[in-house]
Write a structure and sequence with these properties.
The structure is a single chain. The strands form 3 sheets. The chain has a 4-stranded antiparallel beta sheet. Strands 3-4-9-10 form a 4-stranded antiparallel beta sheet, with helices on both faces. A 4-stranded antiparallel beta sheet has the order 7-8-12-11. The chain has 443 residues and is an alpha+beta fold. α2 (19-25) packs across α5 and α7 packs across α8 (178-184). The protein has 13 helices and 12 strands. The protein starts with a helix and ends in a 31-residue tail after the last helix. The protein has a domain at 6-29 and 40-64 and 76-122 and 201-326 and 361-403.
Length: 443
Amino acid sequence: MNYTRTILAALAAATALCAAHAQEAAPASPEDAVASPEDAVANEAAVEPKSVHEIVDEYLDAKGYSEGENTKKDGSSFYVAVGYGAIQAPLDSRSYTDSRVNAYNKAMLDAKAKMAEYLEISIRTETERDYSEGNWGGTETTGDDELSIDAKVKRLIMAKLDKEIQTEGLDPNETNGEARERAARKRLNSEFYKKVISTAAKAEITGMQVMCSFEGVPSGKKGEIGVVAIWSPKLQAMAQSISRGGKLPSGVGKRPVKEQIPSDKKVLLSTFGVQQKIDENGNLVLVAFGQAGAVTDSPQSANAARNKAKMQAMAAIREFAGETVAVTTDAINAENVEEFENAAESYENVSAYSEKVKAVAESLKISGIATIKNWEAKHPLTGNTVYGAVCTWSPDSAARAHSMKRTMDAAAAGAGAARASQPVANPNGSIQGQGADADEDAF
C-alpha cells in the first residue's frame, strides 16, 4: 500500500499522528510473514477500524508508558495523562476545521482535569436503601437535598402506577387518589436504592505539554482527537521561567528547531499544542502548533485564519505557563423494585452523570514569541483548507525581546510620530510586486 493510500485510509477510519510508533514496535506475526499480497489486501479490508482510544493505548504500550507516574531510564520521573475530545461539526460544515481545534482543546482539558484529580480530589458518597412490605398509606416526604433524585424516582413510580391503573380500566385522575390507593394495596413489597457520588478537584497546572496527538474519523461517525500529555520537573521549570524570567541550564545540542518542525503537512494536520525541544546550542525551546479554518474563500478570510492559528499557538504557550483547573463530577444511580399480588414485578432505574471542567489562565505579559512557520493544507476528508502556524518561545528570546523593547522605548521617548506617506492605489487591473531587498549585512 502506498503512503497516500495509508493516510487516507487512516483518516477515514482512525488516523493518528503517532500511531506509527506503536505499529513499528509491534512484532509481526508468523502469519504476516508468509501472507501473499492478495491475502494482505483481503485482510486489510476485513480489519475493523481502530478507535482513537485503541490507538492511544497501543502508543502507550509501545512506549512502555502508562497513565500516571512513569520513570525514565535515568531515574527521573514524569506524569502521563490522556484526554479525548469529540469533533462535533459535520464533515460538510465550513466550521469543521475549527471544531477539530475545539476537540483538541477539550482533549487537553480532559487530560489536565485528570492531572488535577491526581494531585488532590475531594470525594463524597451517599448510599441509601429502603425496604417495605404492605401499604403504609402515604408518601414519605424528603428534604430539599434529596429532592432531585427522589423526585425523579417517585415520578417513575407514579407513572408505573398510572399505567397499571389504566390497564385495569380505572381513572388515574380519580379524586382523592382513590384509584392509586386501590392499586397500591396490591403491592406486597418494595425496595428503593440510591447512591450518589460527588467529586471535586482544583489545582494550578503548569508545565503540561502534548507528547503526541491523534486524530480519528471513523466512516459515518463523528471524529475524535486524543492527546497524550506529560508533565515533568524540567517542563515545570520552563513554565516558571515564562512568568518569572531567568535562564535554564543547557545541555547537548540537537538540530536547529526549524529543522525539527515536521515538513509533511499530513503530520502537521494532526499536531496540536506545545512541545518542548532542544536547539542546536542545547537550549530548551517551546514550540507551539496552532490551526484554524477560513470562513470563506476570500483573501481576507484566509489572512484571518492565519492570525487565528497564531493565536491558538500563543494561547498554548500561555496555558503551558500555568492555569487554574477546577473539576466537579456527580453520578447518581437509583432503582426501585415492587412486587405485587399477581406475581408481577416492576423495576425502574434512574441514572445520571454530570461533569464540569473549567480552566482559567489569567492575563500574562509574555515577550519573545516568534512565528517560525506558516503552512496550509487541504484536509483529506473535507477538502477545506487548514491554516497553521508554528510559534516558538525560549528564555533567550524573551531576554532579547525585553532588550529590544527597552531600546525602542528609549528612542520613542519625547519623539513625535513620523508622518507616513500613503501609497497611490491603481483601481484598474491587477498587480504583483516585490519591494527592494534589504542588505543582509546591515542587520
